[in-house]
């Protein structure tokens, strides 16, 4: 594969991923602030964000830790929130599974929501892309996203509570996920899964330790899988 084609794919990924800086940066900043408010020091906050690199799971774990939830509940909830990463990996495997092991290992670590959402759309829209081009695009997407996640987490941890409440940084959380989920709602299964997840999340908000999120996630996955099964059966008929 010509270097120019992989280079072009890489820079397209960078361009597509760059707009997410606008929401990832305040999201990371908010996590740094929340982590220090929860009692973590700068080193612990950065170790947390580098090892886990999953914003939703990190916020979930922090909130439960602040509520003195049992350790097993904290771990189970964070893992449940991150179960989507297993689905992301399964979805990406047909496209990049033939890449060298070291590239797949790096991609596995950097499989964040933004990287998956943009990459899977690119792969589906351009089925003629080669594996090196797909990997180059994936790495291009994470180039503006992940370093900014680390950097602004550090800034938030160092600044801590000195950020005025008027800045309302928490807006970044819903905006980030809306920006990622919107383009993915392309089939009845996607829309049904999203609708059931939202409904269950609201309906089970009373469940202690945010376990309602686990119920919502499981309900959404079951619904999406069932709708896909019905759709396939109808198509076969």
TrEMBL record:
Could you list this entry's UniProt keywords, alphabetically sorted.
Cell membrane, Membrane, Transmembrane, Transmembrane helix, Transport
Q: How does it sit in the membrane?
A: Multi-pass membrane protein
Main localization, broad class: membrane
GO terms, biological process? L-valine transmembrane transport
GO cellular component terms listed in the entry, alphabetical order: plasma membrane
Transmembrane segments annotated in the record for this chain: 20-40, 135-157, 163-182
Subcellular localization(s) per the UniProt record: Cell membrane
- Is this entry keyworded Lipid metabolism? no
Q: Which family does it belong to?
A: Belongs to the AzlC family.
PANTHER family this protein is in?
A: INNER MEMBRANE PROTEIN YGAZ (PTHR34979:SF1)
What's this protein's name?
Branched-chain amino acid ABC transporter permease
* Organism ancestry: Bacteria, Pseudomonadati, Pseudomonadota, Alphaproteobacteria, Rhodobacterales
């Amino acid at each position: 594969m010509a270097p120019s084609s992989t280079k072009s794919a890489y820079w397209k990924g960078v361009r597509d991923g760059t707009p997410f800086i606008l929401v990832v940066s305040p999201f990371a900043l908010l996590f740094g602030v929340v982590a220090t408010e929860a009692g973590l020091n700068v080193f612990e906050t950065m170790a947390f964000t580098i090892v886990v690199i999953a914003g939703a799971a990190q916020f979930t774990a922090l909130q439960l830790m602040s509520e003195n939830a049992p350790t097993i509940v904290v771990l189970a909830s964070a893992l449940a929130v991150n179960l989507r990463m297993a689905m992301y990996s399964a979805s990406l495997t047909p496209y990049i599974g033939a890449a060298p092991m070291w590239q797949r290992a790096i991609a596995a670590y950097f499989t964040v929501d933004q990287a998956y959402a943009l990459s899977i759309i690119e792969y589906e829209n351009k089925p003629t892309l080669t594996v090196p081009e797909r990997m180059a695009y994936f790495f291009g997407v994470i180039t503006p996203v992940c370093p900014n996640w680390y950097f602004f987490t550090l800034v938030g941890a160092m600044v801590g509570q000195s950020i005025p409440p008027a800045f309302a940084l928490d807006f970044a959380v819903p905006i980030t996920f809306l920006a990622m989920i919107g383009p993915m709602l392309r089939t009845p299964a996607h829309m049904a899964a999203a609708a059931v997840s939202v409904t269950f999340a609201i309906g089970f908000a009373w469940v202690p330790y945010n376990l309602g999120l686990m119920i919502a996630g499981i309900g959404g996955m079951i619904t999406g899988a069932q709708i896909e099964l019905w759709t396939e059966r109808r198509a076969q008929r």
